Amino acid sequence: MIEVPLLTPDLPGTGGLTRVAREDFHVEELPLYEPSGEGEHLYLTVEKAGRTTPEVARELAQALGAREAGTAGLKDKQAVSVQRISVQTRASAEEALKLQGPGFRVLAAARHGNKLRPGHLRGNRFRIVVRGCAPDALTRAIAICDRLRRDGAANLFGPQRFGKYGDNAELGRKLLLRETQVRDRFLRRMALSALQSELFNRCLAARIADGLFAAAVEGDVLRKRDSGGLFVCEAPAVDAPRVLSGEVDPAGPLPGHSLFVARGEALAREERVLGEAQIDPRSFAAGGGEMQGARRPYRIPVDELAVEPAGPDALRLSFALPRGSYALAVLREVIKSGPMPEES
């Protein structure tokens, strides 16, 4: 896996470890919308710990007489998480509120008209305790957080994206080159997605290394932060202030055969990364519908960022990130050493 450079290499990290205890890592989904109060589906707000999202979703569906449940995202087993799970059922909200089981309980229930689908969330709010920090860790963390509030964080993909042994991207490359075949559709989709993530991280790493993280490059695909709309940068001098202000962000490639294409210098940079990875863009067609391609912002805002003492040698970090972004984006800058969490 490619190593993405830090944005704050000049600021010393706090050191320390995360996940010393399960309760040290807390993540809460930020809903994309609120339930209407009417409809065939019950939206359940569920707190879980020590259980996977699919396990809890299945148990809730069975308890409410349904065949399946919907979720907006998956949450780590080794964390305390609060998320929504939808179930199509005739059961009442009052019945659902009584449900609890090993490692989970229902906190709220309300009706809505549609099933929750992946991506139906605005983002995630994290509360993470870091233990075993340096004596002056609070001062160090405050300086780093000030920088991240101002400049944002690198929207890299974390290690869990690449599989237990870190080899999913290589499997995806072999699939594109027709050097191997995988009949399992889930594994195939995961491998091709890992390859896209690896190529994005390579492009992101090159931007940071070249001092272009918060710059507008001629031909860049820029993404409007408020609407998600994409457009091509034709005049860097005009768009540079919009990038600096956070109105728009450069958006890197999750490569595929139907990608919103960059131009000029930005396209040349992306093609150079593909060449270094020995990937021929003509091979993307072999990925079919699983390799259409998309754009992902290189930079993400870090909202609600705060740090406070949590014990003699511990800190508590709180922050919110957009959907699809990893807590690693913040923690690696603050800690700069020790094991990193695997939570999006």
Q: Could you describe the 3D structure shown?
A:
Helix content is 28%, strand content 26%. Strand 9 and strand 10 form a beta hairpin. The mean pLDDT is 94. The strands form three sheets. Strands 1, 2, 3, 4, 5, 6, 7, 14 and 15 form a nine-stranded mixed β-sheet that branches. It contains eight helices and 15 strands. The longest helix has 25 residues, at 185-209. The chain is an alpha+beta fold and 344 residues long. The chain has helices at 53-63, 93-97, 137-151, 168-176, 185-209, 236-245, 264-276, 328-335; strands at residues 25-31, 41-49, 69-71, 80-88, 100-101, 104-112, 121-131, 153-154, 221-224, 230-232, 248-254, 294-297, 299-300, 303-311, 314-322. Helix 3 (137-151) packs across helix 8 (328-335), helix 4 (168-176) packs across helix 5 (185-209) and helix 5 (185-209) crosses helix 7 (264-276). Among the domains are: 33-118, Pseudouridine synthase, CATH 3.30.2350.20; 153-300, Pseudouridine synthase (2-Layer Sandwich), CATH 3.30.2340.
Report, as a whole number of angstroms, the end-to-end distance: 18 Å
Which fold name fills CATH's third level, the topology of the domain at 153-300?
A: Pseudouridine synthase
What's the name of the CATH homologous superfamily of the domain at 153-300? TruD, insertion domain
What is the CATH C level class of the domain at 153-300, in words?
Alpha Beta
Fraction in beta strands: 25-35%
Radius of gyration: 21 Å
Record field, number of beta strands:
15
Overall form: globular
Following the backbone from N to C, one meets helices and strands in this order, namely EEHEEHEEEHEHHEEHEHEEEEH
Query: Sheet with the most strands?
Result: 9 strands, mixed
Integer average pLDDT:
94
Estimate percent helicity: 25-40%
Question: Helix tally?
Answer: 8
Structural class: alpha+beta
CATH architecture of the domain at 153-300: 2-Layer Sandwich
Report low-confidence residues grouped into runs of 5 or more.
Answer: none
